[in-house]
């Protein structure tokens, strides 16, 4: 199988009420998002998917988060915008977007880095 990875970034603030430490207070991150997709076959050009096209799908999702206070968004009214929940949210939104346009592509994982040394990888199935 071929696996293809793109990396993108967005900036957003959050706070984690109830967390026993300084992350309970309002702060921001430069989030790095790694998206990995796979396919057993290649298209007529010999590609899994055009990097540019995949980056557009990722941007359509991350643009909804960029420069927002994540706790205020509808998605996080009932749960906290932790790196875990952000990775899961991006995975599920991307899954919808990719499966609608390119059913042959499998979303393998979304990895959300909230700092250079801390990341969460989310996958399903
Ligand atoms: Zn944080």
Comma- or semicolon-separated keywords:
single chain; alpha+beta; Tetrahydropterin Synthase, Chain A; five-stranded mixed β-sheet; 2 helices; 5 strands; 25% helix
**Total helix count?**
2
Overall helicity: 10-25%
Order of helices and strands: EEHEHEE
| Strand percentage | 25-35%
> What about the largest sheet?
5 strands, mixed
Which oligomeric form is depicted? single chain
SS class: alpha+beta
Poorly predicted regions: none
Distance between the termini: 16 Å
Number of strands: 5
The outline comes out as: elongated
> Looking at this structure, what is the CATH superfamily?
6-pyruvoyl tetrahydropterin synthase/QueD
Structural features, described:
The chain has two helices and five strands. It has 125 residues and is α+β, with helices and mostly antiparallel strands. Strands 3-1-2-4-5 form a five-stranded mixed sheet. The two termini are 16 Å apart. The protein has a single domain (2-122), classed as 2-Layer Sandwich (Tetrahydropterin Synthase, Chain A), CATH 3.30.479.10. The model has no long low-confidence stretch (mean pLDDT 96). Helix 1 crosses helix 2 (83-101). A hairpin with a 2-residue loop joins strand 4 and strand 5. Bound molecules: zinc ion (ZN). Residues 14, 23, 27, 29, 114 line the site of zinc ion.
